[in-house]
Amino acid sequence: MKTGPLNLQIVLITGMSGSGKSVALHALEDAGFFCVDNLPPELLVPFVALEKEHKATRVAIAMDVRTATSLPLLPEQLAVLKTQGIMVKSLFLDATTGTLVRRYSETRRKHPLSQAASVHSAQDQRRALVDAIELERELLADLRENAHVIDTSIIRPSQLQGYVKSLITTPGEQLTLVFESFAFKRGVPGDADYVFDVRMLPNPHYEPELRPLTGQDEPVAAFLREQADVAQMLEHIQKFLTYWLDGLARDHRSYVTVAIGCTGGQHRSVYLVEQLVKLFEDKWVTLKRHRELETR
Fold first, then answer.
1. How far apart are CA 112 and CA 132, in angstroms?
2. CA of 188: how far to CAs of 100, 107, 172, 208, 295, in Å?
3. CB burial class (10 A; 0-12, 13-18, 19+) of residue 54?
4. Number of other residues whose CB lies within 10 A of the CB of residue 268
5. In angstroms, rounded to a whole number, what is the distance separating the alpha carbons of residues 70 and 82?
6. How far apart are the first and last CA of the chain?
7. Which of 144, 177, 179, 196 is nearest to 249 (CA)?
8. Burial of 222 (0-12, 13-18, 19+ CB in 10 A)
9. CA-CA distances (angstroms) from residue 170 to 10, 66, 246?
10. According to the model, what pLDDT value does residue 2 have?
């Protein structure tokens, strides 16, 4: 990603406490980035200037609600960098409130926005934690709106590392399409911009010889290609995205995540994601994820 005369690549990691920012930062460190955690927003511009003097090429910065009082300064700081010809790729890690509560309960860590006053009952402790998480969502809402969101609720750390590494390789100046298959029974991805429900389509699960296979396997693909409803669904999704993607690109969107869901996330949604990538990869930068296959 060319971002200036030194080709300086900057990735900003923000997100909810407990959503996996340290995992993402470690992934970037493994990819050769110089990483800084919890940098105060008011130091962003001078820090980048210093890294340019040092001829740095890859820098990753994590910011979160620990610097809540100065977070409102961040959009202005990013705008200053943009005027200098330096583009920042922003990733926001998120998770459901229930997931975050469970993670805090397992680690017994204190949320950075938790009140100092002691809370006695377990019920009161949970309520206080939920209140802190919801307050954090409010404080980070603007950052989430202007970043690519990764929902870490039900993915493993290794999956998150893979997602982050794939995202940093895409050109920052172009819109990137992320196609993701998922199972409705495990919840809709929280990072999806568009969700298409394909559970009404013929299901290979009910064909004994196809049940153990996936939408990436040719026998399943051949079965679905023969279904008129599948072809029509694919055409409808293609037409919808084709119509709107240019407008999204003109609106300076960096990423658009399209989630395709079926019952188990194994056959129909996987097949459609594979086909959509083939249809759009010639015009747009495309990435694909198969959430349920990657958790096997």
1. 8
2. 17, 26, 27, 27, 15
3. exposed
4. 28
5. 19
6. 33
7. 177
8. exposed
9. 13, 29, 18
10. 39
- Residue 203 confidence (pLDDT): 97
Q: What is the DSSP letter of 275?
A: H
Angle at 98 between CA 187 and CA 123, to 5 degrees: 150
pLDDT at 1: 39
Q: CA-CA distance, 64 to 7, in Å (whole number)?
A: 26
Quick check: 258 and 149 in contact, CB under 8 A?
A: no
Tell me how far apart the alpha carbons of residues 238 and 192 are, in angstroms, rounded to a whole number: 17
Q: List, run by run, the mean pLDDT of 10-residue segments along the chain (296 residues).
A: 60 94 94 93 93 92 86 88 88 95 87 68 81 92 91 93 90 86 95 97 97 98 98 98 94 92 98 98 95 84
| Beta strand segments in 64-197, E | 88-94, 148-151, 176-183, 194-197
